[in-house]
Amino acid sequence: MNTREVTSQYRLNQWTEIVRQCRSSGQTIAVWCEENNIKRTSYYYWLKKIRQAACETLPSLNENNTIVPVNISDLAVKIDPSDQESTSDIVIHIGAVKLEIRNTASAILIENVFKVLKNVR
Q1: Overall pTM > 0.70
Q2: What NCBIfam families would the database entry show (predicted)?
């Protein structure tokens, strides 16, 4: 790692902490930035950089597909593979929500959807 990369990583870490402080303050970004003498344009620039760095650390869609265990009873879902209105391979009803999955969906996409659904009530 060269000096430029180290400096960039250091700044990214600093700004990650600044964004955390702002978010946990309960204040609007505008108010928090003004009280902390930070330009909003700088805040949003670094927020964008932080998000880009986070996206780069996500696993690639080309990685080996894995089977994700899902406890269906925890989600209280009704799986209806014979749904006549759909061209999807699997149709999952969760309350008023209808989730349709095709065989071409990636394992990572399905895993992330179920992670989100697990936390939604």
Answers
A1: no
A2: IS66_ISAeme5_TnpA
